[in-house]
Amino acid sequence: MHLTWLDSNSWLIEMGGQRILLDPWLVGPLVFGNLPWLFKSERTIEKPIPEAIDLILLSQGLEDHAHPPTLRQLDRNIPVIASPNAAKVVQGLGYAHVTALAPGEATTVGDLTLQAVPGSPIGPLLVENGYVLTDNAAHTKLYYEPHGYHSAQVQQFAPVDVVITPIVDLAIPLLGPIIQGSQTAIEVAQMLQPRVILPTAAGGDVRFEGILLSVLRAKGGSAEFCQQLAQQQLSTKLLEPQPGERVDLNTALAGLP
Questions:
Q1: How many CB atoms within 10 Å of residue 157?
Q2: pTM: predicted TM-score of the whole model, two decimal places
Q3: CATH topology for 2-247?
Q4: What share of the chain is helix, strand, coil (3-state, %, to 5)?
């Protein structure tokens, strides 16, 4: 298993014989609802789109997970597995092979099983996806949820080898968290007993602007998270790759209990 963080929520996962592009934002700015005055993010360092992608995996239909400018740059014949909301986005862009998975549904591609689990709530009626990926040949598991909303249902998959999730909170006063992780990352570590956790949804090589930045409040960080792991006597280790760094998880896991 190899993991490459591509900034924000975007990852290249090499697992089960597949090269999986997860929640890709790789070109152009990131803007929500065509409102750049509210929030806009741009890359400070351009990175090439990874080659030889076997599968695109989308957890949500929002722009920071199903980024239309990036999806327009990719081959429309690449198979896509997505939440129902994200499936509508790629179908609207002309992708030919789209599998929509609702929470509780699964599909298998080669040696890899992709299980959708309940993830982030988007408004009062919509729940997007987290995923458990299982390499059935190597007997390894990875769990991904990009906003720190971890359903109790994921406990049935314990233990897992790798968790990708936020370890900090980003919140708007009086409205609550947009991303949560300062406490939920510890809770998911207790539930799933991962050998390693990799943080997602962080900035990386990007810059932000817009009035939303003036009200966002951050809480938590690497030092606090590692301290919590120690206090809870959890053997989980935190790995923090740099943007574009390809991490060999087989090597990283070999030295862990």
A1: 15
A2: 0.92
A3: Metallo-beta-lactamase; Chain A (3.60.15)
A4: 20, 35, 45
